[in-house]
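Example 9 (inverse folding). The structure is encoded as follows.
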């Protein structure tokens, strides 16, 4: 008797969808950065030469809007459910929150390994005023999820899964290869950290970014919604930030 697992289609690489998804993965954040920079020159909005947080809010907000425009355009050529709605079945929100919290701890260990080894407190490079703390806390635990998951999971994973279907199966674990490929692109976009950090830390960031990307894509596929990936992303980044704040207060 043929089951859904045994009937899972094998991956067949297609050049055009791979080129499109790679180009979008690079173009969406960089176009957003360019538009944010242009806006800073013309409309005096936050500039990359100023405080980091207002610039990140601007760049991520434009990234989110560009992704929505791209989805609206692609839906005419590649009809699919891009997940921009509440889950219609199992939400996967609870697993996303639990795994997000676990990865928040792992990310803290990786990102601040030198401080942990030296028994020193982290330096966040900005004064811990109420405005800064609340602004960063909102960004990490609320804002970053939708502004990164809509571009990378709702847009890229859905497009690639529709145009280049193929299943990855390891034991009882099964998901679309598109989520793994986009997770790799997502991780490589963080490769600039090799120029900013010691290579063990930068490599650790590549690994956890890839693993999180796979999880986000898995939740998108299973719930048919971008809500669980957003929750997982927000929780992991938010937990890391809260741990660092508590660490600084304790030290």
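The amino acid assigned to each position is listed next.
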């Amino acid at each position: 008797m043929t089951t859904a697992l045994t009937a899972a289609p094998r991956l067949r690489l297609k050049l055009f969808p791979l080129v499109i998804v790679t180009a979008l993965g690079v173009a969406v954040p960089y176009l957003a950065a360019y538009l944010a920079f242009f806006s800073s020159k013309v409309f005096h909005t936050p500039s990359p030469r100023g405080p980091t947080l207002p610039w990140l809010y601007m760049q991520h907000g434009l990234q989110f809007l560009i992704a929505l425009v791209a989805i609206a355009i692609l839906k005419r050529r590649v009809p699919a459910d891009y997940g921009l709605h509440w889950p219609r079945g199992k939400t996967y929100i609870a697993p996303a929150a639990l795994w997000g919290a676990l990865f928040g701890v792992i990310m803290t260990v990786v990102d601040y390994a030198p401080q942990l080894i030296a028994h020193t407190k982290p330096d966040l490079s900005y004064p811990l005023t109420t405005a800064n703390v609340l602004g960063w806390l909102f960004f990490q635990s609320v804002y970053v999820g939708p502004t990164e998951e809509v571009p990378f999971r709702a847009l890229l994973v859905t497009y690639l899964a529709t145009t280049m279907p193929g299943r990855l199966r390891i034991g009882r674990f099964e998901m679309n290869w598109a989520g793994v490929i986009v997770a790799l692109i997502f991780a490589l976009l963080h490769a600039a950290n090799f120029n900013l950090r010691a290579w063990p830390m930068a490599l650790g960031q590549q690994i956890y970014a890839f693993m999180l990307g796979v999880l986000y894509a898995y939740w998108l596929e299973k719930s048919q919604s971008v809500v669980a990936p957003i929750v997982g992303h927000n929780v992991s980044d938010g937990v890391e930030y809260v741990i660092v704040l508590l660490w600084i207060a304790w030290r």
